[in-house]
Design goal:
This protein has 617 residues and is an alpha+beta fold. It contains 17 helices and 24 strands. The strands form six sheets. Strands 5-4-3-6-2-1-7-8 form an eight-stranded mixed β-sheet, with helices on one face. A hairpin with a 2-residue loop joins strand 9 and strand 10. The longest helix has 19 residues.
Length: 617
């Protein structure tokens, strides 16, 4: 029987570097991220990236940063060598990275060429350009090079000598998508740096350096984001949150357009993404996702960036504060700026408005008098009806008016007061109701169409939220006979824990034995609702989100469900004063541009849109 004893031995450097590469270089995008971050930390103002086959064939990053001398290039290719840590305070990292194993790890699994030239030294003279080539861990060439001050790193044949790793890479198209995302995120974080990205000879991204963060985000994400977003700016002590948040009505089916940064570092952190979901919870449908870019700056000692080898996840000393800042910052920004709905009507809906083809009518609307004799042979006028007297024409037109211009058959009401001018109100003045669901209003700059259920649903939610946020008790409807709701014991425990906060919204609960809750009052806006269903929904939402959401966020989700049942339903006939009252309340209510599920509550057809429909412009 063979011995199972194993001798401990020191691994060779080539194998050590390959093991490190497994953590650092998962795919071409990982290597690209390391190289671009190094260029940023070198003080570059312009970064040029060139890729081939999604990075599988070539990754080349050129910058105009500080550059390196010949001996620094050699040192940069050794493990655990860095210029980004001036002392041993590893917890105070102020750069995008400091890992000394990044470059040697990449060089151990690819052919790497580093060319660099130092900028002016103290004497005013520029350094000499130098080149060093390492092929899968082995030095193969070095010597003088020709390039301006800065650095160029060229990575070729990634995993070329490690087929076991290469076969697990995805297709060039997929690797290209990941690489593009890396450059886009880094370019978004640094609007002061210009970025150019070429793939297989085609320029895919180009942005010039500037100082406008919102413009850079819109340029990289989508041009229309500039008209469908609000600015985020919130500070708490040394913590500062800025960014651009898309309106809930401007959303996507996937969450790949959420860009999050901590101290300038792109991250995909679960805590931050969960906070974003919580902030938009009552404004988006469950299968839709917000579009935004948020930049959080915190003291270096308050965040640990070494949780993940790629530094895409971070750990905060005060995670509750960070989460609260994101939720509060987003909600405040959206409450002050998102009374807008979708900025323009849906393009598909607009295309549905098309001129109907002219067809012959089965019967004329009116019978004109007999026509005169046909025109002379060769006349440029076709035979037509030509009244011989002006009075005859007038009589015919009056007959046409009487037949086709009769008042429409609909409900009519006497105006109790003079109808106000539309110019006085942003959402205009109600002119009628369509399908017992949509309010049609005339504004000074166009036609406004409002979904009455969606709009009132948002208004009810904001009333409930405002009532719970006030200093006094929220309006509540006491039950004549307290109602007992039977639940399992864990659900009762959760409700009992949340009871003091629920009472602020008008829902008064007490524990009634191990597996039941006693309801003494409900919010006044929901006095006619189903108490049993209400309490069970609250318990279900608290159980579903658990500790992942702060209590306030969990209650917001509950309030959104409650508001849906307490709002005006589609199909209800509203009077003109009721319609105008709804419009006026929307104009002063936060987040009234979308319902609790992220759908727009109103759209506007501008005068220009209407003119296009009728071919006037």
């Amino acid at each position: 029987m063979a011995s199972t004893t194993r001798v401990i031995r020191r691994l060779p450097d080539t194998l050590i570097n390959r093991i490190a590469a497994g953590e650092v270089v998962e795919r071409p995008a990982s290597a690209l991220k390391e190289l671009v971050e190094n260029a940023i930390d070198a003080g570059a103002t312009q970064i040029f990236v060139r890729l081939s086959e999604g990075g599988l064939g070539l990754i080349e990053v050129t910058d105009d940063g500080c550059g390196m001398r010949a001996e620094e290039i050699a040192l940069a290719l050794e493990r655990h060598a860095t210029s980004k840590l001036p002392d041993e305070a590893i917890e105070l990292v102020a750069t995008l990275g400091f890992r000394g194993e990044a470059l040697p790890s990449i060089a151990s699994v690819a052919r790497v060429t580093i060319e660099s030239r130092r900028r002016e030294d103290g004497s005013g003279a520029q350094g000499e350009a130098w080149k060093r080539v390492v092929d899968h861990g082995a030095l193969v060439a070095e010597g003088p090079a020709a390039l301006p001050p800065g650095t160029r790193v060229r990575v070729e044949d990634l995993f070329g000598k490690i087929p076991a790793r290469r076969k697990f890479l995805r297709s060039p198209r997929s690797e290209w998508a990941s690489s593009l995302d890396v450059v886009r995120r880094l370019a978004m974080a640094r609007p002061d740096i210009g970025f150019t990205l070429e793939h297989d000879g085609r320029r895919a991204l180009h942005v010039q350096p500037g100082d406008n963060l919102a413009a850079r985000v819109a340029q990289l994400v989508a041009r229309e984001l500039a008209d469908n977003a609000v600015a985020v700016d919130l500070a708490r002590g040394d913590y500062h949150l800025v960014g651009v948040a898309g309106l809930p009505t401007y959303n996507r089916g996937v969450a790949d357009h959420q860009y999050l940064f901590v101290n300038g570092r792109p991250v995909k952190d679960r805590l931050l993404m969960g906070a974003v979901r919580g902030a938009y919870a009552d404004m988006l449908a469950r299968d839709r996702h917000a579009v935004l870019a948020l930049f959080l700056n915190v003291p270096p000692e308050e965040v640990d960036v070494n949780v993940h080898p790629a530094k895409t996840e971070v750990r905060f000393r005060d995670s509750a504060l960070v989460r609260g800042m994101i939720v509060t910052g987003l909600r405040q920004a959206l409450s002050t700026g998102d009374r807008r709905a979708a900025q323009t009507p849906d393009a598909g809906a607009m295309r549905a408005w098309q001129a109907e083809p002219i067809v012959s009518s089965p019967a004329p609307l009116f019978t004109p008098p007999a026509a005169p004799e046909p025109a002379r042979q060769g006349s440029i006028f076709a035979p037509s009806y030509q009244p011989t007297r002006l009075s005859e024409a007038g009589q015919a037109w009056r007959g046409y008016e009487a037949s086709v211009m009769a008042p429409p058959v609909a409900r009519a009401e006497e105006a109790a007061a003079p109808v106000p001018e539309a110019v006085e109100y942003p959402l205009g003045v109600a002119r009628g109701q369509v399908a017992k669901t949509y309010i049609v209003a005339e504004a000074s700059d166009g036609l406004v169409i409002v979904d009455q259920h969606a709009a009132h649903e948002r208004l009810v939610l904001e009333r409930l939220r405002a009532a719970g946020a006030g200093d006094g008790a929220a309006p509540a409807q006491a039950l004549l006979l307290p109602e007992v709701v039977d639940l399992d014991e864990p659900a009762c425990d959760r409700l009992e824990e949340a009871a003091p906060r629920l009472a602020d919204f008008g829902l008064a609960l007490e524990r009634f034995g191990p597996a039941a809750m006693l309801v003494r009052s409900v919010p006044a806006a929901l006095a006619k609702g189903d108490v049993q269903a209400l309490v069970r929904d609250v318990a279900d939402d608290l159980a579903k989100h658990g500790d992942a959401l702060l209590l306030g966020e969990r209650l917001d989700l509950v309030l959104a469900t409650m508001a849906c049942h307490g709002s005006v339903r589609a199909g209800r006939v509203l009077s003109v004063p009721e319609m105008n009252a709804l419009l006026r309340e929307m104009e002063v209510t936060p987040r009234s541009g979308q319902c609790n599920h992220g759908r727009p509550t109103w759209v506007k057809l501008a005068h220009g849109d209407i003119e296009k429909l009728f071919g006037r412009k």
